[in-house]
What we know:
The complex is a heterodimer. Chain A is mainly α. Chain A has a single domain (about 75-360), classed as MetI-like fold, CATH 1.10.3720.10. Chain A contains 15 helices and 2 strands. A two-stranded parallel ribbon of chain A has the order 1-2. By secondary structure, chain B is of the alpha/beta class. Helix content of chain B is about 40%, strand content about 25%. Chain B is built from 9 helices and 10 strands. The interface of A and B includes residues 252 and 262 of A.
Amino acid sequence: MRTSSPPALEPAGPLAWLRDKLFSTRLNTALSLLILGLLAWLLPPILDWLIFKAVWGPQPVAACDAVRGQGACWAVVWEKFRFMMFGVYPFEQQWRPALVVVLLTALLVISAIKAFWRPMLAAIWAIGIALAFWLMGGGLGLSPVRTELWGGLPVTLILSIFGIGLAFPLGILLALGRRSELPIIRSFSVTYIEVVRGVPLITVLFMASVMFALFMPENLRIDQLLRAQVAIILFVAAYLAEAVRGGLQAVPKGQYEAAQALGLPYWRTMGFIVLPQALKISIPPIVNSFISLFKDTSLVVVIAIYDFAYAVKKSTETDYAWKKYFIEAFLFSILVYWIFCYAMSKYSQWLERDLSRSAQR
Amino acid sequence: MSLPSPLTHGELAIQISGLNKWYGDFHVLKDIDLNVARGEKIVVCGPSGSGKSTLIRCINRLEQHQQGRIRVNGTELTDDLKNIDAVRSDVGMVFQQFNLFPHLTVLDNCTLAPIWVRKQPKAQAQAQAMQLLERVQIAEQAPKYPGQLSGGQQQRVAIARALCMNPSIMLFDEPTSALDPEMVKEVLDTMISLAREGMTMVCVTHEMGFARAVADRVIFMDRGEIVEQNTPEAFFSNPQNERSRQFLSQILDR
């Protein structure tokens, strides 16, 4: 009789790995060689342009002009950094939005840490947000800065954080509404979700900016940034509602019944039993919506709000000498967007694993 | 048909009269009349699709009936949500699939409703939950999650969870049907000890040993009707109805 010991492992080591993964069959070998060839051909010039022949650090535009076409001009990032980050915010006051970026990022980071998940966190956020608005807008000893002058990364962060923070609960309510047994609530939710999902965000922003003003009494002026913020919240809530609904449908009927049989009323059943399970299931589509929202805030440019993407664009457009290095400026903004989005994506993967580990299912 | 008269002792826990229910065109419960006295133990059996689960799910309004009346401890089940909540918090239910809350520990499963429905202080709810978990002999599992327990253990937790609300009536909907055979006994033993302590119980089950051991009455249902009801001895040894005989021969010949 054979022993039940596992079969001998394949010989280990990098050579064995190469043979196994890249050169196992004739076709595989051919494809591997083809791809290696392409890399050898394309990679050196790309790396040269991006890194080795690029102009780094705070250098004059002449240094860039000297290597134009061979190396990237990263000096544009140094030259235009303040404008990219803060737009037309008064120059000598830009320490304020800089502090806001640090503050909001710190809030996001501590919120991601499980040890901080207690009621105190809400208070920290409330204080942080109040501080952020004071720093941005001024008053109480700081010189006032109108929201039309706000710009750059803080605007993108504010639109995203409030967008996520308020669209999320609204989306949950809409998802619950869509599954409600009360016909008025259900049809309102369905209509809302389907209408909003059927229009582009850019038109919603236009509505908020232009049309809205037509319907309002003339003396009622609502801040442009606030209108854009509300439009984003209302828009994203519809998508989040559908993401959450998927999770709600995946919670077995028996869970609702067990909660009902114990006499738990509707909101407690949802809050304690159904939503914790449904939201865990919907983490991937929810984070997907968050990432979309973060990037879609750049559409506020159509109603002349200086978010980060627009500030980056304007930073080179307005300066004749540096104008030709707009590609480097855009690449920089892409990197910044990517860092935030990748962090969200990685965090959601960690959260999902962590939650499923703690439930041992 | 002469019945042993369980109705003599105490008042009625459950009164069902003229109960009818349809799923669309399908007439799932037909003119059900059933009274359950306080402390009485009833076993409901019958072929699948006979309406027995639907019947007990009407008792705590997991299903709505369309005709007839159901009164539980004197409270009539209507659309009135207050009555429904009152009945539900007084009627415990154990499900075939356990339906424990997978994201909560065993202890939290047991204390959630006492804390949020009965408004008990947390410490008191926990002390009582530990006592009841002790009673179903699973106290050592209190900090674990349901997914870490065997089916039999989960079902005993489900029984403890229901008992934590101090119900006066317990409903069991095929509590052992989803269990591996070796775990059936631990759950039945728990149910038997509960019965011996005087709990009013309505159990949908095919466990004839359980029925013989504790049931005051066996109710046989088929096609939405109560076909026969009798003491377990009389029902098992001398079924009156052709359909009862056929059903018994099928389950006993296994």
